[in-house]
Amino acid sequence: MAFRSHPSHLPLEADSSSRFLPSIVALMVALLTFSMVGLAVLHDSVGQWSSQIEGSLSIQVPPTELANRSPEEREQALQKTVDTIIDELAPMPGIARIEELSPETMAALLEPWLGPDEVVSELPIPRIIEITPETGFNYDALETKLGLIAPEAVLDDHRIWIERIADVAFSVELALSLLIAVLFGATMLSIIFATKSGFSIHHRIIELLHLIGAQDDYIARQFGRHSQRLAFFGALLGLLIALPISVMIGWLGMRAGWPVPSLVFSPLFIALLVAIPFVVAFVAYLTATRTVLRVLRQML
Amino acid sequence: MTEVVSFRNVGVRYESGPEILRDLNFSLHRGSFHFLTGASGAGKSTLMRLLYLALRQTRGEINIFGRDNVRIPREELPEIRRRIGVVFQDFRLINHLSTFENVALPLRVAGVEDLQIRKNVTELLEWVGLGDHINAKPSRLSGGQQQRVAIARAVIGRPALLLADEPTGNVDDRIAMRLLYLFEELNKLGTTVLIATHNRQLVRRFGHTQWLLEGATLHDVTQSS
């Protein structure tokens, strides 16, 4: 990207707008970077949670119908129901794994609340069957079939939680995307304002260039290159401020045990961040040249 | 004789105000030299602006280099403006550029190569006596020197038409005479010259056509002076 191919005839560097534009762009790009990192982290985290939750579902087989039987009879009847469920559901398409949670595992899970396993074995505890579904698994078919095999069994498919998490995440992602759009728009407005103020400050020089035969494009390119240069350095500064802070927050988070998504360190995301100054500079060039051309076309 | 500029019944008014210029009928022929005089506010600068295509008439017809000014497409105007050299009343030098760069401006705008620019500008600055001030910024030059830079910038592109608005306004009579001799030299090379000035005493020393702008109309006063 060539920022200066021949000497500028407009003293644009001396403008007050030239001084504030890089600062404004730096601030905007820093906020833009934070928002993009935030969006990436959120998106990745929601994806991870969803896949973790989606990756398992469970069936509870309660002993409600067997309360008046002896513990031995109850256990036998429960075991029979569990075995029937496993046998019937295992051949269903989309089920990668189906197995009962072992009594030892159940006892270990309940021990903090119910005490030693001798007590647990005497209580009417529901049996748990764990299912690992494959992608595209049909929950409705499973629910229907389970209702026919064992109407008292309860399917915990976590879909309601996934939907809720997805709703919240979508709202936050939408808000962050809007924020990114607003920040980008504000950066462009700053460039337009700086260009217009530069234009009014240098109106006499522009008029002179116009009267000695300068083409509109020639004058517009000078403003374009100037805005491009300022926007690039401002954006670079903003990125250099935001990136170390983001990395530091990530590092502190990892030390505190937060799961830092791998997406943040992916080459594509880093390339996207690195591209910001170039994109901002390019848009600044286009914005400035178009603004100047529009004003110049009002001259004879 | 080839007409460089011709005005037919030209009038100018700003918005709904009275006509500042009225029924102007004149021609500037190739290689001619004219003085335009008139009191301050008579409309000399407005007439100059019409000539260097910074303003359009509200009525009448102006032909410049054989083309009707209102029919020239906008993208062709820069090319025509490059054939017109203008010395502005306030010089309009660019303060952050050196004498050299100020004079080189019309050539840079026209896309002339650096080597050619260096040669032409250096020669011209020597000719106008500013060879020692090539790198000086306008703020370091005297009024007379600034005026010569403005003139050098106006003639560097070898214009077919040279317009000077009060070029002797800020200098003493001795320098004013030198500048007018400079314009005469350019005129001898074929450039059509029109100089707007209110200094009628100075004008009388030269034997060129004199026009007086008075009452919004133009009068030939060559005989009467």
Distance N to C terminus of chain B: 25 Å
Give the spatial strand order of the biggest sheet of chain B.
6-7-8-3-9-10
Percent helix of chain B: 25-40%
Low-confidence stretches of chain B: none
Order of SSEs of chain A, N→C? HEHEHHEHEHHHH
What best-fitting shape of chain B do the alpha-carbon axes yield?
Answer: globular
User: Could you give a short account of the major beta sheet of chain B?
Assistant: 6 strands, mixed
Strand-residue proportion of chain B: 25-35%
- Beta content of chain A comes to 5-15%
Q: Please, could you describe this protein's structure?
A:
The complex is a heterodimer of chains A (300) and B (225). By secondary structure, chain A is α+β, with helices and mostly antiparallel strands. Chain A has two domains: 12-52 and 162-296, no CATH class; 57-155, 2-Layer Sandwich (Alpha-Beta Plaits). Chain A contains nine helices and four strands, in the order αβαβααβαβαααα. Chain A has a four-stranded antiparallel beta sheet with strand order 2-3-1-4, covered by helices on one side. The radius of gyration of chain A is 32 Å and the shape is rod-shaped. The two termini of chain A are 33 Å apart. Residues 1-5 of chain A have low confidence and may be disordered. Chain B is globular, with a radius of gyration of 17 Å. Chain B has 225 residues and is of the alpha/beta class. In chain B, helix 3 (99-109) crosses helix 4 and helix 3 packs parallel to helix 5 (143-155). Chain B has a six-stranded mixed beta sheet with strand order 6-7-8-3-9-10, sandwiched between helices. Chain B contains seven helices and ten strands. The interface between A and B is medium-sized, with 19 and 28 residues.
Name its key features.
heterodimer; A: about 300 residues; alpha+beta; Alpha-Beta Plaits; 2 domains; four-stranded antiparallel sheet; 4 strands; about 5% strand; rod-shaped; disordered N terminus; B: about 220 residues; alpha/beta; six-stranded mixed sheet; 7 helices; about 30% helix; about 25% strand; globular
